[in-house]
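User: I've been trying to design a sequence by hand for this structure and keep getting stuck. Would you show me what you'd pick, starting by listing the structure so we're on the same page?

Assistant: Good idea, let's start from the same input. This is the structure you sent:
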């Protein structure tokens, strides 16, 4: 647990394990606990990987970020952190939602250093009005007996973000996602959202190393269809759309998530022998 001072932020990070670095980038509003909660189980029986979890500016414990005004500057802060922590090293990237958008920004400039990329419910189109999202938020499964024990506020929040509503999903959602959202600087995040999209074309290059896209069929935040538009840019990508999964796919389909992440890491290892 430490901080890394870059030009526009003092970024909180945690490093677990040793070996090939993997930089984990969470989505908009939560903090590093989202990525830590879903990725650490993947490494329970895998050695040789150095996991780097960070709190993006405006989220978690990161401080001194007030002069960041847009996603371009957010990206610069993340890149500066990576170059400070693992200078001249090759590494992997894992991005969830907005973190997946940042991953594409990093790939554009530094793809030669990057060994592989994983995208969890990635944000493809920053402008909500232009996203292809199917209908309204839908619930796939509910444990009504368990839900009756939640407060109205808890139930409203839970049912508006998850598509599987039971005790397991609540426990993980509340500790890995909601806890981070609660402490986020929402005024700052609203400011950055006014300039949410990069000022440059992010998908001009082709990334030909092992990748994976994990998409939720019931994701009402970013959807899954827009990801098809960039599939050709990732010729070595596994592309998976999971039913019974919304924008927190890593929780709702945990077993499949773990299995697919293991398979991705195997492909990365084989490719980079």
């Amino acid at each position: 647990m430490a901080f890394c001072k870059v030009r526009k932020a003092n970024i909180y990070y945690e490093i677990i394990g040793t070996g090939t670095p993997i930089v984990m980038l969470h989505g908009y509003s939560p903090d590093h606990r989202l990525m830590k909660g879903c990725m650490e189980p993947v490494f329970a029986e895998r050695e040789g990987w150095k996991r780097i979890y960070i709190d993006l500016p405006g989220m978690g414990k990161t401080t001194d970020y007030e002069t960041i005004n847009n996603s371009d500057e957010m990206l610069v802060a993340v890149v500066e952190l990576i170059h400070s922590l693992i200078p001249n090293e090759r590494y992997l990237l894992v991005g969830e939602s907005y973190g997946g958008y940042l991953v594409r920004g990093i790939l554009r400039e530094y793809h030669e250093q990057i060994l592989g990329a994983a995208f969890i419910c990635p944000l493809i189109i920053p402008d909500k009005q232009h996203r292809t999202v199917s209908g309204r938020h839908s619930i796939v499964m509910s444990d009504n007996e368990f839900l009756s024990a939640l407060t109205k506020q808890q139930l409203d929040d839970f049912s508006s973000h998850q598509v599987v509503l039971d005790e397991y999903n609540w426990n993980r959602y509340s500790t890995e996602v909601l806890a981070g959202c609660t402490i986020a600087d929402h005024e700052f995040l609203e400011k950055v959202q006014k300039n949410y999209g990069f000022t440059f074309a992010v998908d001009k290059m082709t990334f030909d190393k092992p990748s994976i896209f994990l998409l939720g069929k019931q994701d009402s935040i970013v959807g899954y269809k827009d990801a098809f538009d960039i599939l050709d840019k990732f010729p070595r990508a596994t592309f998976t759309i999971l039913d019974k999964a919304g924008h927190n796919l890593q929780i709702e389909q945990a077993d499949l998530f773990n299995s697919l992440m293991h398979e991705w890491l195997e492909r990365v290892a084989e490719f980079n022998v």
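That's my pick for every position. To get oriented when you compare it with your attempt: The radius of gyration is 18 Å. The domain at 2-134+184-271 is CATH 3.40.50.1820 (Rossmann fold).
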